[in-house]
Write a structure and sequence with these properties.
With about 325 residues, the protein is α+β, with helices and mostly antiparallel strands. It contains eleven helices and 14 strands. The strands form five sheets. Strands 2-1-3 form a three-stranded mixed beta sheet. The protein has a three-stranded antiparallel beta sheet with strand order 5-4-14. Strands 7-12-11 form a three-stranded antiparallel beta sheet. About 15% of the residues have low confidence.
């Protein structure tokens, strides 16, 4: 039993690590960035004035961006602005963005403090040129908002049992976040996010012919099931843990990647010659739900209250 629990804990860690990198960046790319050329998006350098102004920040620390043309070292404050821009919508409330910034800073302290410079892939950070493209005519307004969110939370970090941790986040829940009763994740809790159900992005259906469905699986080395069995196994929060196609077992996150699904909360239904994949929410469901956090901010909650709602057994401290 202990071995099974350890395997499940490792799967949770892997899911959080993989999904927090791609959940919102996938949505950003599909909705905003795809129309622009790759050269414009991934080329270019930071504005000199921008880097000079940020370099005067009191908050110490650096991040190394691993880009196609080499490595680039930037200040922690500049990283937090660009990483927040890459991970949360610009039109969200300032208090929601502050919560996201504290999450990103906490992750930095958990992985990079007093060690070698923290290295990340370029896709997790948007420089000013990319932020300007993303935000369009709202670029000046949103830039000021994100800079304010970083400056007004300077040095604020979440701790659990005396240490910073890597807080997961995602865009939109299925109505609840996922919890896990484990000493390995004492900060992880399931909370109700019923406001998410009225979001325009909450429910999506992917319809395809059975031929297309099984062709995609065959491309991944999974054969058509002779017994025709298709089964989905979910956790207590209705997020998929495993899909069975005949005798082949596929992890939920792997199946999600095969079909480019927005959420791990999905179901499969056969209807005549079609397969219908119904999705609820966006993301893996662990930790900070940005949409619900933003609804709380609209109702007057500050970033501290928002963070304490989504994470339990934590202390929020100022480190500088």
């Amino acid at each position: 039993m202990k071995q099974k629990n350890d395997i499940y804990m490792k799967k949770i860690k892997r899911t959080i690590r993989k999904e927090k990198r791609k959940d919102f960046s996938m949505v950003l790319f599909c909705i905003f960035l795809l129309p622009y050329t790759c050269a414009l998006l991934f080329g270019g350098t930071e504005s000199t004035n921008r880097l000079q102004r940020i370099s005067k920040a009191d908050e110490n620390g650096y991040v190394v961006l691993d880009k196609a043309y080499g490595k680039q070292k930037i200040s922690l404050q500049e990283y937090l602005i660009g990483a927040a821009a890459a991970s949360i919508p610009g039109d969200y409330e300032t208090e929601t963005i502050k919560a996201q910034v504290v999450i990103l800073r906490t992750d930095y302290y958990a992985n990079g403090e007093k060690k070698e410079d923290l290295e990340i892939s370029g896709e997790q950070y948007l420089n000013w040129q990319k932020r300007e493209i993303l935000w369009g005519t709202n670029a000046k307004e949103y830039e000021e908002k994100f800079v304010k969110a970083v400056e007004e939370t300077e040095g604020i970090v979440m701790y659990c049992e005396g240490s910073p941790f890597s807080p997961p986040y995602f865009r939109l829940s299925n109505g609840n976040t996922r919890g896990e009763k484990s000493t390995k994740f004492p900060w992880l809790i399931s909370v109700s996010c019923q406001d998410d159900k009225v979001a325009t992005e909450y429910y999506r259906e992917n319809r395809m012919s059975k031929m297309t469905f099984f062709s995609i699986l065959e491309n991944e080395g999974i054969q058509y099931p002779e017994n025709g069995k298709i089964a989905v196994y979910s956790d207590d929060y209705e997020y998929v843990k495993q899909v069975e196609i005949g005798s082949t077992k596929i992890e939920g996150e792997t199946f999600r990647e095969y079909f480019h699904l927005p959420s791990l909360c999905f179901s499969l239904k056969e209807e005549q010659d079609e397969i219908i994949i119904a999705n609820r929410g966006i993301g893996h469901g662990f930790g900070f739900c940005q949409y619900s956090g933003n609804e709380m901010a609209k109702q007057g909650e500050d970033f501290l209250s928002i963070l304490r709602f989504f994470f339990q057994n934590i202390d929020i401290q100022k480190t500088v």
